[in-house]
Structures are given as structure tokens and as C-alpha cells.
Amino acid sequence: MAITGSLSEFSLPEIFQFLDQGQKTGILTIRDPQDLRTGKPFLRYIWLHGGRVVAAGDRLDNRGLVQLIEQRGWISDRLRPDVERLISENVPLGLNLKALGILQPDQLKLLFSIQVLRQVCALFQIETGQFRFEAKAELPKSEMTGLSLPATETTLMGLRSLKDWKALQSKLPEANSTLFKLIVGEPQLRLENLENQVWQYANGTTNLKKIAEKLGISIAKLQQIAFRLIVVGLVEEVPDIDMGMPSAESDHAEVNQSINNSDRPEISNSFLQSLVGFLQHKV
């Protein structure tokens, strides 16, 4: 079974959240024929098992992970035959190299960070393109360090590492918006100190400007933190909307006259249909 779509319709965090909650196993392919940043084609593969990201790369020849290891000089000529044997046998490469004493746990963690989180960060820079998830795809064990992260937590960690937010600037919450918690109790995701403090202020009444002032950080940094909490489903942005409501001191007769004005425009059927569709989608 394959699921396909456009990144303009479904954002990467939404896709990751779906794969995480559905505990999906397979390969997610992100493809953009012409990356707007570079003018060159963009291609990434993300492998998941049970909703957890186990590996990532830009190739399908089972040589991505071993290339990372070789670049760091962690494989001697004497050990190379053992490594090639493991690749040909298609067994979990990282765990087997650890068992042989070739790699240490800290080295595996570093490899996973470079292989997965760096690739995920690159995905957040893609503004257009297509995605495809194939549930029956075989997992390349020779690309696996043996470590994994839930897809939603991968999103969170990838955004923490993001240096250039230009591609996401238009998606950041407004400075006058407030945040509202979507879950009861403490979040299951591991939050950093500032993320947890912003989470505590998600009361639906304190806007982002005031939160930034209370925490002593820039509004830009606060917006990025808020965006991270939003895309992993912990909070929701509540826009600051001026409803034009009359004050308590307004003249009641004038208000009633405005309400009963027979010249007010009728709501079109097309608008009502769009609204019903939107509400059904949200539910």
C-alpha cells in the first residue's frame, strides 16, 4: 500500500504525526524535482518501524551508513572485510559493529544524529514537492544504527537543530496570538527547559509577546518554540481576532438597530458549504 500527496497540502510534521500515531512501518520518500533553494532536484528517504524513525538517507544502495563511518576513519583496513560481510548479509550494521567492538555507544549516537536529524532538518527547508509512503518496503538493515526515535519526537528534535527558519517564517504563530493546551496532564515528549516554560504559559490568555517578555527571550525565538509545540500536537495557536464587539457602554438602541438592519448581506451557499467542509475536516 502506498500513500502519496503534496507537501503543499500535508506538511512534514503532519505526515510524521500520522506515521507515529499509526505505528507505521515502511519508507517515506520526499522528492522535489527542483528545490527552490538550490535549483537542483531534492530526494530523501526516511525508514520507519512501528512509527519510529530508524534510518534516513539520500541513496538506496545500502552504503549510506558505512560511508558516514568511513568518513570518520572508524574502520581500519583490517576490519573492512567484516564490515562488507555484514552489509552483504543485510543485518543491523550499527549493533553488529558495536558487538564486534568496532563502534562504541557514543559513536552510534553521533551517527544516528548525523544520519537522521540532519536529514530531517533538510526536509523542513523544502517548500514544494511530493511525498510517498510505502508500507511494504523492506527496511535496509545495513543503514540502521540500532537506534530509533518516534516520528513526532524526530520532528521536535529536527526543528531544534534548524538554523535557517526562512522557509518556515510564514508558518510561525503571530506575536499577538495565544497558545492553548491540547492535552491534559504533562506531555509525554521530552521537552527542553524553555519549551516546558512556554508549555506552562499555554493558557489561552497570555499572548506570545508577553510570554517572551516574561521569559526574557526574543519574540522570534519564542515563535520558533511555539511552532515546535504546535506541530507536535501539544498546543494550538489561538489568533488575536478583533470581533468588533460593542463595549458595555454602547448605546443599546444603536446596537439593536444594527442587528436588525434589513440591508445586511446574506451569507452565500458556497460560503456555508466551505464552512461545513472545514468543520467536518477539523472534527
From TrEMBL:
Residue span(s) of domain PatA-like N-terminal: 4-166
Pfam families: DUF4388
InterPro entries, sorted: PatA-like_N
Domain of life, per lineage: Bacteria
Protein name: DUF4388 domain-containing protein
Lineage of producing organism: Bacteria, Bacillati, Cyanobacteriota, Cyanophyceae, Pseudanabaenales
